[in-house]
Amino acid sequence: MQQHLNPAIRISRAADRLRPAAGTLVLILAALSAGGCGEHATLPESAGIGPKPVLPPPNPTRIPTINIATAIGWPAGLKPVAGPGLEVRAYATGLDHPRWLHVMPNGDVLVAESNAPAAREENSGFKGWIAQHVMDRAGAGTRSADRITMLRGLREDGLAASRSVFLRDLHSPFGMALIGREFYVADTDAILRFPYTEGTTEISGSGTRLVDLPAGPIDHHWTKDLLASRDGSHLYVTVGSNSNVGENGMENEVGRAAVHEIDLATGKMRIYASGLRNPNGLAWEPTTGALWVAVNERDELGSDLVPDYMTSVQDGAFYGWPYSYYGQHVDVRVKPPRPDLVAKAIPPDYGLGAHTASLGLAFYDGAALPEKYRGGVFVGQHGSWNRRPRSGYKVIFVPFAGGRPAGPPEDVLTGFLSPDGKAYGRPVGVAVDSTGALLVADDVGNVVWRITKSSSDPVRQP
User: Fold this and answer.
1) Could you list the pLDDT tens digit for every one of the 462 residues in the chain?
2) Bond before 427 cis per omega within 30 degrees
3) Count of CB atoms within 10 A of residue 438's CB?
4) Nearest Cα to Cα of residue 170 among 75, 96, 279, 93
5) What is the pTM for the complete model shown?
6) Are the CB atoms for 69 and 417 separated by under 8 Å?
7) Largest CA-CA distance found in the chain, in angstroms, rounded
8) Concatenated DSSP letters of 412-453
9) CA 246, CA 334: separation in Å to the nearest integer?
10) Distance separating alpha carbons of residues 383 and 375, to the nearest angstrom
11) Which residues are paired to 381 by β-bridges?
12) Of all helices (H) and strands (E), which one includes residue 22?
């Protein structure tokens, strides 16, 4: 199962094209190699976790903290470390940047193999050169496979019994949903609808364009998750911001940093909730039926700010971005200020740690894992680039009671970083399969992992 990644770091080519000032280039290269201008977290990662995370004063620096875990892939014989009472095996290997997962009613597992669109204004100019360098080192600089792969069944060794290309020739696909005999995909620029027959291993054709989504030419946060309402009448889609804190102009943020609702009967789309910088994982809480989402908050305020979070999504609510964070904590970098909007901003429900890049969200209603997991939520934390020391790079579990978070998180899958701080893998999407096992998409290791109750089989772990 050896899967090495050696992403090219295209410094010389970009430097020849852009030729930034020598002094600035030295500062940037020093930041890239040393983690920023000496800025360091003063609080433990746990301080940014829970219903009332600690929010110290901002600590911006001239050069942002850049502390990247260089992607190397999984050496042969190694795999992540499962939590107590659990074990993990590879369900599929050799994938091409698997980002997101969807489990069909018949048990088929769909994997969106995807990456950022090739041509974006964000990747031009000096700032784009820096962003591209960060992505390359983190294993996110590869060309998008633009396909959805189907995994079916289970062999004795834990791998999928069969594998096929379910959909191809997409455009940075991410979220997926099935309603009756219609399958929906959220490309970066549109939601597409395809006819579906249960048991099919492949869908051909270009599909029908249901609605356009905010996308290029910048398309800073390109991933769009998708979730069907329980009665099948609506779709909900996430659209991330086009910047960190509006620096690309608010005219480029129309319809972004929001969760949208689509009425399938009329085709009309409206903003359901806004001020959510980069929402990703959407899920229905099983007790109350409330819509929840995982959100990546803003960068460059220091290693301790701002905690990413998960929250129930209230219809019509505003969550602050870009003018404030965690309710009404004003971000003074945003000009002009909007005190009227800050006054409306509501705080999220549960902090997930500063810069953890919490993306995947899956409530557990199965019976295959230990009982303590029932009703709680699993969160895939892709891992930080703007924090020293690093945070995230793991899957956690947060218990729920009465539809609300009810305690501190528990590590479910760790070991994604090598002893010298390189990334064997990075967890992204999480999903519960038809047997009740937890699936984790690892877009650096190019693996889908499957977590079950532990057995007596010994395994070597990092």
Assistant:
1) 434 333 333 323 332 333 334 444 444 444 444 444 579 999 999 999 999 999 999 999 988 899 999 999 999 999 999 999 999 999 999 999 999 999 999 999 999 999 999 866 665 554 554 555 565 666 656 899 999 999 999 999 999 999 999 999 999 999 999 999 999 999 999 999 999 999 999 999 889 999 999 998 999 999 999 999 999 999 999 999 999 999 999 999 999 999 999 999 999 999 999 999 999 999 999 999 999 999 999 999 999 999 999 999 999 999 999 999 999 999 999 999 999 999 999 999 999 999 999 999 999 999 999 999 999 999 999 999 999 999 999 999 999 999 999 999 999 999 999 999 999 999 999 999 999 999 999 999 999 999 999 985 444 444
2) no
3) 27
4) 96
5) 0.90
6) yes
7) 61
8) EEE--B-TTS-BS--EEEEEE-TTS-EEEEETTTTEEEEEEE
9) 7
10) 25
11) 358, 394
12) helix 22-34
Per-residue burial over 248-273, b = 16 or more CB atoms within 10 Å of its CB, e = otherwise? beeebbeebbbbbbbebeeeebebbb
CATH architecture for the domain at 3-41+54-453: 6 Propeller (2.120)
Size of the chain in residues? 462
Domain boundaries, the chain: 3-41+54-453
Indicate the residue type of 347: P
**What is the C-alpha separation between 198 and 311, in angstroms, rounded?**
34
Contact, 405 vs 399, CB < 8 A?
A: yes
Whether the upstream peptide bond of residue 336 has omega within 30° of 0, thus cis, is yes
| Rounded Cα–Cα distance for residues 279 and 295 (Å) | 4
3-state helix, strand, coil in the chain (%, to 5): 10, 35, 55
Q: Do residues 326 and 344 touch, judged by C-beta distance below 8 A?
A: no
